[in-house]
Design a protein that fits this description.
single chain; alpha+beta; Glutaredoxin; Glutathione S-transferase Yfyf (Class Pi), Chain A, domain 2; 2 domains; four-stranded mixed beta sheet; 53% helix; globular
């Protein structure tokens, strides 16, 4: 089994960045990119579907092993490699980390990334314009999930207590992008704990090597 891993996917993907963060936090050597064994793997090509039956990224390659789905990949990296633990040992806090990992990778990703952020990154309006009706439709659920995260952060510096976990690795890239979006300023003004949390994530050495907060509009 090789000591390093390869993350298949584009670096701008929030979920690819989550896997990167886990590698960086634990000191796991890795390579990254949309290729396997030096050969490019085009998105939704037969080669891509051979790696992931639903045509998603990231895909983790570790020697002969192949693994899909970001939460599963992150848990594997935490268990298979030395380095700082990204999950609590005790059953209850570990279950809460798993719970938040699932909530983030499912509901929060849908509300924040798929239905809101991507409209600014890849606008589908006439002439490449942002569809303001789509943005308006996404805003109520965006506000709701941001409020949910704001409330959770009353418990500690990170999503589950005072230690960085896999849940934070899932949250960090999507929130990093949101903080760089001018259109989201009004929402973030209502969630000061969440903004402080994002800044805390961005200040971590691992994040400095992974996260980028572009001005999206």
């Amino acid at each position: 089994m090789t000591a390093s891993v390869h993350i298949v996917g584009p670096q701008f993907s929030t979920f690819v960045r989550s896997v990167q963060l886990c590698c960086e936090e634990k000191g796991i050597p890795y390579t990254l990119g949309p290729e396997v064994d030096g050969r490019p793997v085009a998105l939704h090509s037969p080669a891509h579907y051979a790696l992931h039956p639903f045509g998603k990224v990231p895909i983790l390659l570790h020697g002969e092993r192949r693994l899909i789905e970001t939460p599963t990949i992150c848990r594997y990296l935490d268990g298979a490699f030395e380095g700082p633990a990204l999950q609590p040992e005790a059953p209850w806090p570990r279950a809460r980390v798993d719970q938040w990992t699932g909530v983030l990778a499912g509901y929060v990703d849908q509300a924040l990334v798929r239905r809101y952020l991507l409209e600014f990154v890849f606008p589908k309006g006439v002439g490449g314009a942002v569809r303001q009706d789509a943005v308006a439709a996404a805003q109520p659920e965006l506000a709701r999930v941001l409020g949910l995260l704001e409330g959770q952060l009353a418990e500690g510096d990170y999503l589950v207590g005072d230690d960085f976990t896999i849940a934070d690795a899932i949250a960090a890239p999507m929130l990093d992008y949101l903080l760089g979006l001018a259109a989201a300023e009004a929402f973030l003004a209502e969630t000061p704990r969440l903004v402080a949390y994002i800044r805390r994530l961005q200040a971590r050495p691992a994040a400095a090597r992974v996260l980028v907060a572009p001005e999206l509009g």
